[in-house]
Amino acid sequence: QVQLVESGGGLVQPGGSLRLSCTASGGIFSIYDMGWYRQAPGKQRELVAAITSGGSTNYGDSVKGRFTISRDKSKNTVYLQLNSLKPEDTAVYYCNARAHPRTEAAYLYGYWGQGTQVTVSS
Length: 122
What we know:
Mean pLDDT: 95
Distance between the termini: 40 Å
Shape: elongated
Helix content: under 10%
Order of helices and strands: EEEEEEEEEEE
């Protein structure tokens, strides 16, 4: 069973920085891409950033130039560096991975982490 475990959330002042990590484990054949989404109270879940196995990245418009996604393929881990944080960045951040599990390597499935809270407040 593929699992995603996130870490690194917390409380930070406006203008501050955080680094989120997400590691995928358990029965993985290969990972197609990994990314981060966020959901604020009363709002829909939105893409923050994603990175493919080839290293191509995609960012949500509201975080471009402030957040950076990176990936360590050898560790099945994706990172999100959050800089110049704003109160509107407050949300639960979810890790996402699309992967081929060992038991069904021909199929691509989406997996989610449990989420980590990021709160930006003075």
